[in-house]
Every structure is written in C-alpha cells, then in structure tokens.
Write a structure and sequence with these properties.
The protein is of the alpha/beta class and 293 residues long. It has helices at 7-14, 21-30, 39-45, 51-63, 72-87, 105-109, 116-120, 124-134, 143-158, 168-181, 189-203, 211-225, 235-242, 255-268, 285-291, and strands at residues 2-4, 34-37, 66-69, 101-102, 250-252, 281-282. It has a 6-stranded mixed sheet with strand order 4-3-2-1-5-6. The longest helix has 16 residues, at 72-87.
Length: 293
C-alpha cells in the first residue's frame, strides 16, 4: 500500500491532531503501508522561519515507513519517453520503464546516474536544512510565483484551452507543447507534426498512456473552466500533488483539489479505454484510516 498524504495531514500529525506521529506510524506498519514523499511534501511541511522545528519535522519523516517519488517533470519525461518508443512498435503502454520511486532524496534531485552511496545513505535532512538556512524562500509559495502563474490560466480561460472541450486540436497542442518543455519535440517540422498526430490519435481515448500527465491536464482543465476560482498561492504544488495519483494506492487532497480530480475522473471513466482513480482519493488521513485499507 502506497499512500500520498496531503501536507496538511502530515503537519496536523506533527501537532498531534487528530492522530500523532506514533499512531500514524503504527497504522502504516499495521497496514503494510508506506508514505510517498514528493518534493512538494518536503517544501510544504517545513517551517522556513523556524529551523529547529523544520529539522524536527524532517527527522520525524525519516522514522515513518516511506519512499520518495521523483519530480513531476522527470516522471512526465519518462512517461513520454516510453510513449515515443511504443508508438513506433507495440502501442502498448505498460509503464514498466517509468520507475517513479526513489530510495533517497539525492536520487529525487538528480535525473541521471547516481553513485551507489547516494542510493543508500539518505541525506534528506542535511540537504534541506542547508537549503533552508541559505535560501528559505525556496520553501515558500510566494506572490511572485503566483503572479507568473496567473496569466497562464487566465489565457487558457479566455481562449477555452482545456481538455474538457473535447477539442482534438487542444489535446494535440497540449502534447506538442509538453514535448517541447521536456526536450523531446523533433526539430524537423514534418516529423514533429506526424509524431504529435500519432500520439494524439493513440492517447486521446487511452488515459493510461502517460497517466500522470493526463490526470494533471484533466484536473487543471476543471480548474480552468471554473471561472469563480481566481487561484491562490500554492495552486501549482497542489496540482503536482494530483499528478502522483496514478502511482499510488491512496491519496488525500484538500476539498477544492479533490473536487477537481473527481470531476476529471468522472470523464476518464467514459473513454474508450477508461481508468478510474476515484477509489484512491480520500478526504484526509482519518478518512483513509476509517476504510481499513
């Protein structure tokens, strides 16, 4: 059982409510479960203004059964790398080459080859405490970040650029733009056009292909069409939390993001080759515990 907790659940556990860390640890062991820590988990659970408390929290994370999941961009790069291989051969996306999990924090931070010592000796605490002391703003959701992010979703709203429209062109453009961002877009225009067309035709009704990318895009689309949601600090890491869902057995999300994900899931189950993540989504750690999973 792999469980990705919303940072709020971990912070509450640090404070002993509704369960404390020892109770959480016992519950995980009893259920043979491991927590999955993402980069966003670490960013959000520390307290940049209080180094002593931050160290306590990081050291506490280390005593809980856990694994790390790689950075979102790295996972999406791996998903599309596999999709590009399979589009030329079997067109069967198994996900076996994604390898989304890592044993140490050092592996999460580096996408290439890494020495055996860094695969064994986890330096989560030391690395993040040094970064907190040197540059605490790295761990904050800042207004500057939101101001850079807001024009993007406002543009998408204005031009109806979301996957809910069912417009094949929008889906195609999303794939093409992603390939550019992750460095897999062919330089030859004809080859690029043909490749993006092939991926579009293959992936559109098959959300299990590049699943993290797809669920993220569908969830973001739910946000884009909700014009009453003006966005807030922390939206971007919240969306990155959502992208973990295909690789875990259970995930807790805040109410707003949970609503968007469930709406996206209701559309994904209606496709030609559906996937259903709804049973993996929980309100909070108590909700997960109450199910006996």
């Amino acid at each position: 059982m792999l469980l990705h907790l919303d940072s709020r659940d971990l912070i509450n556990a640090f404070k002993g409510k509704p369960i404390d860390i020892e109770e959480l640890r016992s519950a995980l062991i009893e259920r043979n479960a491991k927590l999955i820590y993402s980069p966003e988990t670490i960013q959000e659970v520390v307290t940049p203004a209080d180094l002593k408390e931050s160290r306590r929290r990081l050291e506490t994370l280390m005593i809980l059964p856990h694994r790390y999941i790689r950075q979102q961009k790295e996972i999406i790069t791996r998903e599309f790398s596999e999709a590009l291989r399979e589009i030329k051969s079997t067109k069967k996306f198994s996900g076996e080459c994604i390898l989304p999990f890592a044993s140490t924090w050092q592996v999460v931070l580096r996408s290439g080859e890494i020495g055996i010592e860094n695969q064994i000796n986890d330096q989560l605490v030391d690395i993040n405490m040094k970064l907190l002391a040197a540059n605490p703003d790295v761990f904050r959701n800042t207004q500057e970040q939101f101001d850079a992010y807001a024009p993007n979703f406002m543009f998408d709203r204005l031009h109806k650029l979301n996957l809910r429209t069912g417009n094949k062109g929008v889906f195609r453009d999303a794939i093409g733009q992603t390939l550019k961002v992750i460095g897999l877009h062919p330089s030859n225009a004809l080859a690029a056009g043909s490749l993006v067309d092939d991926l579009t035709n293959w992936m559109r009704e098959r959300p299990s292909v590049c699943p993290s990318w797809r669920l993220l895009g569908e969830t973001y689309s739910e946000f884009v069409v909700n014009t009453t949601d003006k966005g807030k600090l922390g939206d971007e890491p919240d969306f990155r939390h959502v992208s973990v869902t295909p690789y875990v057995d259970a995930i807790t999300l805040d109410a707003t993001m949970r609503g968007y994900v469930k709406a996206a899931c209701r559309r994904l189950v209606k496709l030609k080759e559906p996937v259903n993540y709804q049973t993996r989504i929980f309100d909070n750690v108590n909700h997960w515990l109450s199910t006996g999973c």
